[in-house]
């Protein structure tokens, strides 16, 4: 049984070594001459006006995060709907398991939506 899973172990070792080796090589070969021009803030080729370190409202981030969550929901629901177009089995009985699975999935996401709604994350101020 262990021999059957050895390829997974080799894959994990290579998957860990490959990026670390690339980052280490880039760190060793990089130019190390910082200067005032390299440390300056670059903003579309123009000099910055005013304070360069400004705080963004966290609401923008939360709003985008909620959008991504529900965008991923659609990415999961579309293949499910295509794969389970006919929920009836060969004998004509209804197969409830896929329907229960997607109901639980949507219920968990709806709980998150209602939580964000109650916390005021969807209010645009």
Please characterize this protein's 3D structure:
With 125 residues, the protein is mainly α. The chain has a domain at 58-119. It has three helices and no strands. The protein has helices spanning 6-29, 58-83, 97-119. Helix 2 (58-83) runs antiparallel to helix 3. The relative contact order is 0.07.
Summary of the model, kept short:
The protein is mainly alpha-helical and 125 residues long. 58% of the residues lie in helices and 0% in strands.
Structure keywords:
125 residues; 58% helix; flat
Helix/strand order: HHH
Oligomer description: single chain
Radius of gyration: 25 Å
Main beta sheet, described? Answer: none
Judged by helices, strands and strand pairing, the structural class is mainly alpha
Roughly how much helix do the residues carry, as a percent range? 55-70%
Instruction: For the record, give the distance between the C-alpha atoms at the N and C termini, rounded to a whole number.
Output: 59 Å
Overall mean confidence score, pLDDT: 81
Proportion of strand residues: under 5%
